[in-house]
Structure formats: structure tokens, C-alpha cells
Amino acid sequence: MSDYGHDLLFGSFITPTNADPQGPVRLAVSSEAAGLDVVTFQDHPYQPRFHDTWSLMAYAAARTERISLSGNVLNLPLRPPAVLARAVASLDLLSGGRVELGLGAGAYWDAIEAMGGRRLTAGQAVTALSEAIDVIRGVWDTSTRQPLKVEGTYYGVRGAKRGPAPAHPVGIWLGAYKPRMLALTGQKADGWLPSMGYLKSQQELADANARIDDAAAAAGREPSAVRRLLNVGGSFTTGTNRGFLQGPVSQWVEQLGALTLEHGFSGYIVMGDDERSLRILGGEVAPAVRALVAEHRVAAAVTR
Amino acid sequence: MSRDHGHPVRLGVALDLAQLPPHALTGLAQVADEAGLDLLAVTDSTHSIEQVSEPSGPDPWTTLAWVAGATSRITLTTHALAPTGPATVLARAAANLDLVTDGRLELGLTVVPAAADGTASPAVGVHPDAGALAETISILRSMWTADGEPVRGAGPAHRVPGADPGPAPAHDVPIWLSGTDDTLLDVAGRSADGWWMDATASGVDPSSVSSAQFRLDVAARRARRDPAEIRRLLTVATIPAVPDLVRWVVEDGVDTVVVATTEPADIRRLASEVAPAVRDLVAAARTARGTRSGPSRPARVRAARRDGIDYDDVPAGLETVEPGDARYAGMRSTYLRGGRPGLVLLPRDTAQVAQALIWARTQPVPLAIRSGGHGISGRSTNDGGIVVDLRHLDDIEVLDSATRRVRIGAGARWGGVAEALEPYGWALTSGDYGGVGVGGLATAGGLGFLARQHGLTIDHLRAADVVLADGTIVRADEQHHPDLFWGIRGAGGNLGVVTAFEFEVDQVGDVGFAQLAFAVDDLAGYLQDFGALVEAAPRDLTPFLIVGRPRGGRVMAQVMAVVNSDDPETILDRLQPFARLAPLVQQSVQVMPYTGVVHRTDDVHDAQGEPVTRSAVLEHLTPQFAEDAEQLVRSGEVYFFQIRSAGAAVNDVPVDATAYAHRTANFQVVALGASRERLDRSWDAMSHHYSGFYSSFETDLRPERLADVFPDRTLTRLRAVKTTYDPDNVFRYNHSVADASAQASPGGVPAAP
Questions:
Q1: Domains, chain A
Q2: How far is B448 from chain A (nearest CA, A)?
Q3: Most buried of A113, A122, A263, B253 (most Cβ within 10 A)?
């Protein structure tokens, strides 16, 4: 039972289909209009029916004014990290600090290899992601003029140009499930961004959180240095509780509030590409969950 | 000797990321966009700076994608971008950015020599030689040709085992190459669409742009290419004098000049003073010299051209797609019919439609008009002919909210129309699918899910803009060209090209949408009962019935019905009787906006082969019809058999009010089969049940079908209208009503194939 005390974020999870090229852009604009904090996009560069997520994000960033944008999560094996770091920093500068970096080690290795990417085992991919984070943070660090050197098996760099530095401290959020990925999340990441659908139970959430906490502590970091975000699916109905996030607004508020207060989650990204759900999420659910959580946090502070 | 190859002259601005803070860059891009410049190049001069201790500038590709979102009309290009990472990913990024900007993207590439900064590391993914660039270009073009073949790259820089191709970009994205070393010139001569000279730094002296191209021309000829098809671009540091610009174009063959500047005033002056002067002088010089103008496609595209079309004679300014173009795959075919047109014309407005039509008449090949390309009849494509594709005419505008008057372009699709009307609480009955185009449906009838309450789509038409066969543009309504206005409501494909429709739409709130699946043993009995229930039902109910091929002797019937009410009790009341027709195996009833029923989709229509369909309208589902229909379904001959409600409000309209004359029918049926011969035999044997046919669903082209589509009196009147408005039978590829004699009339009209 832990609440890390972060401000709450509510966001959308957009499938970047290109059959109607402007469709995902409209959903991003609607997400902003709905009052959401962040719009996120799946990234499957090997899928011809999808936009290139990174280019779509840059385009959508120019079409919005306030909302933050992130991949959910970007595919590292097909996006070289030094280039990605420059791209993310550039868009953060252009958009006035509205970019976060959701990043994944890669899955669907057959498809990655078919595109000309390098096939790695799951274990190798975690090591590669760890090296990539060092490269990315190194590129962003312009406090030194020393050319960037990163030792590594997959993404070693010997003397690369640094910069640009992003406009704000961009959070690196990892899609992580297995122990080594969770450990890396605790050790180096700014956020954890799993999908509820891949987690079997609330107990699994708690166990994973504990692994991240332990790894953070071992690396000398506060567990609260890692924001916990969650991709969730669900639907708004007028009837009764039909399961997790399958019910009326009041049920959503209660269940998301509990995830924050009991499991420390502070970001909820809702899947479904559905404008009506986004409006309800931003207009009704978000304020109510914030109020509920604020009330409990105040009460907890007073009790202490 | 002049090198001028008559390419359109373009003036642009180059924004250097090394010199501009991000916020200034966005502002300058918008100035260039609004000022009307042709091209905006994003460049990064830090590529050439070897000092790795200097921080890197912004990422050019990301910046370009951002600028794309911040602008609305200007063409965008990278300049001297060094590709990083997998070429397959760059291909998708470029194609999709071109799609989202509706064809505003170009790609300027180069090679950056491996520097001391470790760019060859997989973390950066630069492939530092011209050979790698050649591989990249080959992969880009293969990925953009979305024809289904896996894309392979043998390396050494890009080893691609077999990527799925696609998407195709919105237009053929040209690839410009920068660089002056021999290996790069070889690549440019072999495979680039243009070569980009840079006179801002140490590259090219503006006074020697002609001699600098000599080596490129040699490289092109060595690759057996006509140097004329390689465009020439030039970056200069300051706004040149007009005479210099004109000389570069008409003497030295440069067609695109971009000025590297950070001054908004420069950009405005370039657009408002320099560009018009240069264009006028170049046009005059070209006229004087007899230079042939117009973009010429590369040899690889020209090789795919068809006979009978004078491709180089297309009116200037008209967008075209040819069989060799990347976009062709997504435009050649319709929903159910494969096509192989020789040329697709994509007019931007009504005037261009007229221009396209006048020109198309001079070409001795078939002509098709396409809005969405969904028509079951497949008349919106052809083989070897011209297609006038109206997709760009897709504006939807509310003219008067008091009378619910809405103006809709022929190229819009019904899902988009539903979406545009929803915020007003309005809807316009259309078909049963959002991907259908407005033009084809709204000139044939339009039998949709609100038909029994609100009639046909054409019953809501109040006025239309029509381009006639001779290119004249007229407005047709009850007062102006009333005969034409009558004719386009049911026989539009015979009379002209409607480019915009003015409809009076209906107030429609949320509706009940039911999908009920039945396991049917006695299909004949089921159809009779279904027919009786529909005829007796209140008008707020419009059901459609679909039957597929029987499986294991069992017939599955699916009823899709809209109840025009958001009241659950009313919805259930209307549907309950249907639930008793046969055992229900699946059911779903939802209250949703009309946009949930006819929803936006931008499916690409890419069928192959010829559809085999027959259609009909009939008054009642009589016992005799039902028995014949059961026999047809059980024969396995048809794989799709649909019955639509076509009565109630549809039949309030007098039979002679529109060219759609089936105003006594309560039902419309369509069958899709595998064999033309067998389906025709079965269907012809059932013809005594029918009172007519619906043209959009009919692929039987025998002349006697004409009398089924248009009853006697309608046909007589239509022929008179046809004689007035299309005397030369230009529009003869869609159930033409013209007499055989009219087809041989003089006037330069080619014989039908």
C-alpha cells in the first residue's frame, strides 16, 4: 500500500491508423479539447496500415497547444537512440516542453527483423534498452562539452555530438513487465507504463511495483522518482458494475481512485479511440478522481 | 544551348536549423505558408561542422513534421537530410507525412561522410556512403509501391529480409539529392528525381550553375536516362536579382530556387514581388522559344502509359495519376470491380472538373466519373480510359441552419457527411455504409437506413452544380434547368457531372441500431413474414435483410435495422415482432448517433475482377417470390442476397417527380454471384416478380436493362433531356439512355469501345 503522491495525469491511447490520415490527429485534438493531460500513440513501425508514430506526434503537436504527447511505447529496435534523443528534444523545444518519452525494448521480433532491424533475445533487448537510456540522457546533457561516450554492446557510442537539450526534463517511461525490465525501470526510468491487459491481477501490479521500488532503492533513488502510469481499457455504461472499468462514471472514479491510493498509480491512459469516452474521462472522471485522491491525501497527512 | 526543360518554376525559402531558435522557425514557416511561396526547405548546416563539441541542432525530420502541422498549403521538403536508421522506417514516415499533409512532402537527401563523432554506431545508424544512399532510394520507392510484394534489400548497408510494403504516399514524393562527388552524382543520375545545388557555402558558384550540371547530365546519360527528367534545385544565400533568376531557369535549367533567409520581410518580398515577376518573364521566354511546359514524369512511369491518351497534353494545373505512379494502386479499382484506367484526373474545383471533361472528350478512350468508387455497378473505373476522380471536392458546408440547408461536394463520403451533421442534431439518409461517395449515390437514388421515414437521398436535393458535357457549368433547381434537375435525381450519370449538392437535411437524434441474426429453416416463409412486418411497421423503422450462402443446409439471415428514436421502449416495440420470425442466434441493439450507423471510413477500394450482381425492385415479398428467392439462395449461386426497405416515405413522392421512378416498390433486392451466366439465368427467370431495377447495384449491361431501370415514360423524358444536355452522349458508360443513333452522332465523339 503506497501512494507516491504525484499529480494525476489522464490521457488517451490512440491507434495511429492511416486509412483516414487525419483521424488520429482529430483524436489528439479531441483529447486536448476534452481536458486530458496527455495524448499517447501506439508505435508499430512494421505495420503499413499505421502512421509513423514519431512523425504523427510531431504533426499532432503542432495542431495542439497545451496537451503533452508521448509514444506508448516507441519501438527502440527500429529507432536508433541517439537520433531518437535528438528528435525528442527537438519536438520538446518546438512544442514548448510537451513531450514525454514512452519507450519499449521491442516485441514482435520477426516483424522488426523483416524491416531490417536487429533481432535480439528478450535478455539482450533489456541490456540494449539500458544502453539506449544512457545514450539518450547523454545526448540531452549539454552541460558538458565532452563528446558523448557510452560503453555498450548494442548502442555503444565513441564521441558523439551532444544536444539539443530538451525544453523540460523529459520523462522516460518504460513499458515493462518482466523482472529485469522492472528492475531497469526502478534503476533508470522516470516512469512505468504497463497495460492493464497484460497484467493478470491487482496482486501482479503490487508485486511489480515492489520490484521497481527495490531496484530504485538499490540504485539510491526514491521510489517516488518513478511515476506509475497504466494503460486501461473500459467502457462507460449507465447500468451496473460489469467488471473493472465497465460501468458508470462513479465506478470508474472509485476504481481509479483506489489504484492511486493503494497502488500508487498516478497516470491513467484510456484505450479505445472513442471521442465520447475521452470527453467523459476528461470532463467527469478526471475531476472526480482528483477530488477523491486529494481528500484522502489530506486526511492521510492529518492522520500522520 | 538552353537546358530549360519546361518544368514549373518554383520559389521557396530554406530555413536553417543551425541558425534559428525553434519558435522563430515556426513563425517563419507560417509566414512562408501565408505569403504563397511554393516550397519550404528544412536544412541543417551543422552537418558540415566537424567540431563535435558544438551541440547538435534540432532534428530536421522532426522539425519538418512539426512544420507540416503548423502550415496548411506550402510544399515541404528536407534539404540534404542524411538518412538515419532503417530505410523502411523512413519510407513509412515519408509516405505517412505525405498522406497527412495531402501530398505536400518532398524528400531531399544526401550522404554525410563518417565523422569522428561515431555516427556509424548503431545508436545513430548513419550509413556514410553513396552506395547506401542508392539502397535507401530503392527501398523507399519499393515501400511506396503498395502492390503487395515484400520489400527486400540485399545490403550491404540495408539488409531487409522482406518488409510489408506501403502505405503509398498521397502523391509521388520526389527525391532530391545534394552533393557533388562522383559517386553521389552517379546515384543522382541513375535514380534521383532532382539534383540540388547549394550556392550558400563552398558548393556552387551561382554564375556557374550551368557547367556544374555537366557531370550530372553525363551520369544520367550513362544510366540511359534523359537528363531532362532530372529537376534542378538551387539554394542561394540572398534574394537574387530577377534577371539572374530568369536566366537560371530559361538558360541553365534550374526550376526551383530557394533562398536561405531568417527574415520575414525577405520571405514576403520573394513571394509578392520576385515570384510573380519571374513567372511572367519565364512564361514569356518559354513562349518565345517554344519550350514545352509541364512536368514530365520519369521514364519508369512513362513506360506504364496506355495507348490512346496524349499524356503530355493534359491541361496545366490538373493533378494526374498514371499507371506507373505510386498512388495508382489505391485509385484504379472500385469497391467490387478491378480497374486499369490509363489516367486519373483529380480536379480541385468545379472549374477544373469542366477543364478535365473538355480535355477528356478529345481523347479516344472511355470516360468514367468517380466520387467514392463504392458503386456496386463499378462504372466509376474502366480499362485504358480516363477517370475523373472527384475526391478533392469534399467540402461540407452548412448554408442555413434555419432551413437545414447543407452544401456537400460530390467527393465527400457519407460517413464524413454524418459526422459533419451530427453536432447540429441532423442527418441525411444515404446508404448503409459510410465509405460510399456522395456523388454516385446522390445522382442515382440513395436507399438508406432512414428511407421509410425520410425517403431517398435525392428527395432531399434542392439544387446542384452541374458540369455539362460541353464543359458549361450550370446550377439546376426547380426554377433553373428544371428538366436537368429532374434528371439528375436518378439518372445523373447520363446527364452531367454534379460537383456540389444542396440538400435539406433532417433533424435526427440518436437512433436505435439493431443487428439480429437468425437461423432459418423455412426461408420462403421467413421472407414473406419479414415483408409483411416491414410493410405494416411504422415509418420510424427501416430494416435491411442479408442472407448468405447456406452452410450445411442451414440459412443464416441477418437483419440490420434502424429505429429512428432514442426511446428504448419504442425501439423494442418496433423490433419485437421481428424477434419472433425465427430462432435468434445473435442480437445486438444499441442506441447511438447516426454516425455510429453510417460511420466515417476511408477504406481504399482495391477490388480485382468483375463483380457479378443483379438488382431489382418489387412491391411485395409475395409467396411466389419468396419461394424463388429461397431456391436461388439454396442453389448456392449467390453469396450475398440483400433486401432493403424501399417504401413508405420513398413512395410519397410522385412517380414523375424524379428520374428515379420506382415509387410503388416497397423493397429493393440485390444478389451477388460468382457466374455471370448462371446468375443472369436465375435472375431473368424471376423477372416477373420485379417492377424495375436500381442502376447502382446492376452489373448486367445488356441493353434491355435500360427499360428496367427507367420505365417507359421516364425513359422518353430522359432521352429528351439527354438530347438537350448531352447530345453527343459523352456520358454513355453508365446505363446510357441515348438511342443507338445518338452514339453515331457527329461532334468528334469517339465510338464506344
A1: 9-303 (3.20.20.30)
A2: 23
A3: B253
